Amino acid sequence: MDSYPRRWWALIALGLSMLAIGLDMTILTTALPTLAGDLHATNSQLQWIADAYMLVLAAAVLPAGLLGDRFGRRKFIVLGLVLFAAGSAWCAWSGSANALIGARVLLGLGAAILTPLSMSILAVLFEPHERQRAVALMSMFTMVGIPLGPIVGGALLEHFWWGSVFALNLPMAAIAIVAVITLMPETRGEQTRRIDLVGIATSSLGLVGITYGLIQGPSNGWTSGGVLGGLVGGLAVLIAFVVWERRTAHPLLDISLFSSRIFTSGTALATIIAFAMFGAFYALPQLFQAVLGAGPQGTGLRMLPLIGGLLVGFQITNRLAPRTGPTPPLVGGFALMALGAMIGTGTGPHTGFGYVALWTVIFGLGIGFSLPTAMVAAMGALSKSRAGVGTAMLMAFRQVGSVLGIAILGTVLSVGYHSRLDTSGLPAAAGHAARDSASAGVAVAAQLHSDPLLGSVRAAFTHGMDITLWVTAAVALAGMVLAALVLPRRRPTPVEAESEHAVVV
User: Fold this and answer.
1) pLDDT value of position 190
2) How high is the pLDDT of residue 500?
3) How many CB atoms lie within 10 A of CB 109?
4) Per-residue model confidence (pLDDT) at position 197
5) Could you tell me if 355 and 363 are in contact, meaning their C-beta atoms sit under 8 angstroms apart?
6) What SS3 state is found at 172?
7) DSSP conformational letter for 96
């Protein structure tokens, strides 16, 4: 708004915190082997170090939007930054694996507060004609951080101790805290609404249960008691949450938001994009390390084509979407994602990096076209007073899409790998270890000096990845059809939803 002349500086300050959140999603992948040695962490502890952050982020992102609307968005953004900084410091100087797990919980809580409120405040600070650019810039900070994680993590681990991957967050959080306090006005949503404690509890427990089941399913088995209990129990609690929200006078979520075709379809499309995107992010580092033989830093550098595609896509859609409306960039973005994935299915154990760079550039370009467009479409249907809760819904669904992408596409990759891996003639222990993952298989082949096993591991992994990419392409094509059918052909006339219950439909 004209009354907030420093709004772009405030956006950059928030972007630093979102960059740190994006880095945290992937930077740990390069540090886990070091943590296993330095902290004597078991496999189970390593899994919880990685999963604790995601679980808390998925569970807390919904109530964070409501509380920010109720008590003040700037106040809660500062709180989120303080928690994120405290969690980062605790992570960096943790003395044990269990302490690091607890620190990751605190880190996830800070990220859960920052994620929806950093986006929702854009609806307050920026007029409709600026919002596309503002959301794209904020999304760019987050999405660039995700592929940059392995690059930064690999570089830090080569020169500093493992805690440096978390200490990196501290200066960014400190700058963001000062900038938010000095540059950002305080804004609130509806002041008279009561806090829906039952809604907060049931939505959080339901998301934790389902997220736990999806994350643990590939490793523990989908029929194990804990996984089934998490999935079934989480689904039951979420059903109870929906029933409660329809009956209570002061719901956590305004179910009427889903009466907006634009909000519903934008949220659904953003979830589909997150599903496909994180499935690719899961597979690519393993391809670079297990098949192409790259180290941690080399793996990160090989993600640069994907980053380049993202950045170019963001820039193009910034100029295209305001003139064409959301449908053309979304349809084109999904088509590019599908094309990149289909070209990627030709990747084999002897494929050079140039071929991989080609399809990852195309895939990244598709993400850059589609993700900010879907988010702007959904956020454009929110009134300013409900921006926090509505954006939290959007981010929660995106997070669930990310978890589904890693769990489901990761399982497809694992099944494909197991179906082609030849461990005949190996000792039982070596064969079992080689089946754990492609990286483990490469390590076993190196210990046994077995070139046939190494070739089998690499061929099996690329076979599994090719199947995964076919599934990803199918999902992207489904998203393309959905975008073409449900979103308006042209950009709608901007409407400022000023009333407490206004939804642009």
Assistant:
1) 57
2) 33
3) 22
4) 81
5) no
6) helix
7) S
Torsion angles phi and psi, residue 116, rounded to 5? -75, -35
DSSP 228-261: HHHHHHHHHHHHHHHHHHHH-SS-SS-GGGGG-H
CA distance 140 to 134: 10
What does the alpha-carbon distance between residue 416 and residue 347 come to, in Å, rounded to a whole number? Answer: 14
Provide Rg for the chain, Cα atoms. 22
Q: Is pLDDT at 336 greater than 90 in this prediction?
A: yes
pLDDT in tens, 109-150: 888 888 777 766 776 677 667 766 777 777 677 666 766 776
Q: Could you give the CA distance from residue 267 to residue 13 in angstroms, rounded to a whole number? A: 26
Taken as a whole, the chain contains a residue count of 505
What's the pLDDT tens digit per position in 159-205?
888 888 888 888 888 888 888 888 777 766 655 556 778 887 887 78
Judge contact between 30 and 302, C-beta under 8 A: no
The span from the CA of 162 to the CA of 404, in Å, is 29
User: Of 11, 6, 17, which Cα lies nearest the Cα of 78?
Assistant: 17
Name residue, tokens 């907060």: 200
The contacts of residue 319 (CB under 8 Å, 6+ apart) are none
